[in-house]
């Protein structure tokens, strides 16, 4: 007998395992860069994941709590089991404390896991409130190319990205596929080896052209073509758009990258839900 069954959701067939869980990711926001975030030209809530029964908030930027509660159907932040930060920048971490408070029922329940680089947790620029740490069941300090487990879910970090803050990409291992998140970074060749086993890639593409200044450490469209063309995932989703990406129309950019690479590439939009089964 098959270990999975199919369920129709809004006209689509969605694979559901015997425990009744659906593997999915939802884009609570696709904003990148300060101007797009500050003007809320795109929402900046990060991502919500349901993987092997685990409910995860990834990089909850400004508005994550509101986007969760206003989703259709609503996402209950008190039901989260994990919050993950790839790095400390405000567009990735602004709502981390309110979600930790919700996850622990205001401290009345010692539960939940926080995964984050050490910079997020310690030092003068720490973004996680100290009193909330005592409410959590577990805090995991992320390091380069490490493996972690949340129940049956295996999670691996990439090598350290070349970004202004301590930053790691993530890979989630599901039956038959690997979901990868290539977050903020400047391109460098060694980056590719950390993502070679990814079958579904979510990649932060901030800008159309390469920056003239080296201090702007984000991926451009040409970087993305090189990465996707080399890795050849089954499918890729572009997100974290800056102004030049919005002006160029992310959908057209994605279509061009598809033609260049032969990979199905889609531009994420706010609220997009991707069923992974």
């Amino acid at each position: 007998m098959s270990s999975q069954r199919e369920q129709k959701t809004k006209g689509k067939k969605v694979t559901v395992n015997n425990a009744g869980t659906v593997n999915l990711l939802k884009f609570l926001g696709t904003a990148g860069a300060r101007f797009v975030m500050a003007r809320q030209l795109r929402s900046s809530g990060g991502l919500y994941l349901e993987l092997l029964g685990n409910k995860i908030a990834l990089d909850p930027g400004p508005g994550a709590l509101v986007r969760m509660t206003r989703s259709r159907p609503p996402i209950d932040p008190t039901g989260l089991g994990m919050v993950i930060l790839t790095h400390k920048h405000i567009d990735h971490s602004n709502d981390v404390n309110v979600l930790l408070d919700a996850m622990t029922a205001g401290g009345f329940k010692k539960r939940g896991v926080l995964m984050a680089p050490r910079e997020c947790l310690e030092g003068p620029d720490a973004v996680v409130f100290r009193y909330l740490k005592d409410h959590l069941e577990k805090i995991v300090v992320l390091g380069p190319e490490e493996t972690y487990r949340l129940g049956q879910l295996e999670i691996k970090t990439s090598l350290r990205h070349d970004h202004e803050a301590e930053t790691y990409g993530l890979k989630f291992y599901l039956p038959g596929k690997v979901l990868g998140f290539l977050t903020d970074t400047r391109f460098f060749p060694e980056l590719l080896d950390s993502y070679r086993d990814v079958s579904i890639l979510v990649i932060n593409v901030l800008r159309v052209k390469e920056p003239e200044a080296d201090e702007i450490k984000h991926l451009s469209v040409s970087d993305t073509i090189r990465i996707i063309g080399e890795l050849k995932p089954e499918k890729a989703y572009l997100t974290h758009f800056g102004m030049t990406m919005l002006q160029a129309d992310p959908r057209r950019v994605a279509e061009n990258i598809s033609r260049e690479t032969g990979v199905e590439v889609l531009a994420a939009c706010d609220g997009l839900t991707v069923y992974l089964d």
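Residues 1-19 have pLDDT under 50 and may be disordered. The first helix runs from residue 34 to 39.
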